[in-house]
Amino acid sequence: MKVIVMGPRGKMGKLITQVAAQREDMELVAGVAPKGRDYIGTDLGTAAMVGRELGVPVTDDLASVIDDCDVIIDFSTKEAAMEVLDLAVAHGKALVCGTTGFGPEEMNRFREASEKIPMLYAANTSKMVNVMNKLLEMVVNILKDDVDVEILEMHDQWKKDAPSGTSKEMGEIMAHAMGKELSDIAVYGREGASPRVPGTIGYHSLRAGNIPSSHTVFFGGMGERLEITHHSYNWECFARGACDCAAYLAGKPAGFYTIQDVLGL
């Protein structure tokens, strides 16, 4: 599978490049950087600190290299992601997008694109996070209205969106298990006199230092409490998951795929 990585010097793009470079089932054909970056024109292996040159360029023009690839892996920004999506559709290329912070209209564009290309969207590409999502669904199905649900998520000081895309996905999974929509029952933080409304899902976002990612879901009952937590020590687990998602799309027809499909959950 021939792969293009967006933002190969970025937090995720660098790790995805490093992981893909080690895989026998993947060939990196280009990295695409935002315009104005000082590493444009260098070798992708040098730009992503792979430890060796890969013999492929870093460019700032996706259109000039897109026909060389089978799949694009994009963990860049929500603004750039829409341009990448349009080019992927225009050139008939598979796309893995792990960027978060999209609104309903933008997510609908991904679903519309999936009618023409293999499209995999994942708010979180960690295997363990997605196993956690299955556990959350199971807990809600069993305990139903016997518990209050609260989500605490922690990320680094640079993360742009809050709550995180991962915690929103967790909330959506649990809300649907309740037969509800997250938008109708989510409560974001509390201040002053604010007694808890039964049947809601509370959100609390911490941003500090260089915390990679941490999500805890609290199920509060009477006289007992269940906590399910995932901690990532670094971003390598997400990079490995992203490459697994790209590999999954090999030979797939147009459609909207998720990491649950990749993991068979």
TrEMBL record:
Major localization listed first in the record, in broad terms: cytoplasm
Subcellular location: Cytoplasm
Residues given in the record as NAD(+) binding sites: 7-12, 43, 98-100, 122-125
Pfam families the UniProt entry points to: DapB_C, DapB_N
Annotated metabolic or biological route of this protein: Amino-acid biosynthesis; L-lysine biosynthesis via DAP pathway; (S)-tetrahydrodipicolinate from L-aspartate: step 4/4
Active site, per annotation: 155 (proton donor/acceptor), 159 (proton donor)
GO-annotated cellular components: cytosol
Keywords attached to this entry: Amino-acid biosynthesis, Cytoplasm, Diaminopimelate biosynthesis, Lysine biosynthesis, NAD, NADP, Oxidoreductase
Residues binding NADP(+): 52
Keyword Membrane among record annotations: no
Class in the EC hierarchy, top level: oxidoreductase
Sites where the protein binds (S)-2,3,4,5-tetrahydrodipicolinate: 165-166
Domain of life: Bacteria
Enzyme Commission (EC) number: 1.17.1.8
GO biological process assignments: diaminopimelate biosynthetic process; lysine biosynthetic process via diaminopimelate
GO molecular function, one term: NAD binding
Keyword Cytoplasm: yes
Gene3D superfamilies the record matches: Dihydrodipicolinate Reductase, domain 2, NAD(P)-binding Rossmann-like Domain
Catalyzed chemical reaction(s): (S)-2,3,4,5-tetrahydrodipicolinate + NADP(+) + H2O = (2S,4S)-4-hydroxy-2,3,4,5-tetrahydrodipicolinate + NADPH + H(+); (S)-2,3,4,5-tetrahydrodipicolinate + NAD(+) + H2O = (2S,4S)-4-hydroxy-2,3,4,5-tetrahydrodipicolinate + NADH + H(+)
Family, similarity comment: Belongs to the DapB family.
PANTHER family cross-referenced by the UniProt entry: 4-HYDROXY-TETRAHYDRODIPICOLINATE REDUCTASE 1, CHLOROPLASTIC-RELATED, DIHYDRODIPICOLINATE REDUCTASE
Function: Catalyzes the conversion of 4-hydroxy-tetrahydrodipicolinate (HTPA) to tetrahydrodipicolinate.
Self-association and partners: Homotetramer.
Protein name: 4-hydroxy-tetrahydrodipicolinate reductase
Organism of provenance: Mordavella massiliensis
Name of the encoding gene: dapB
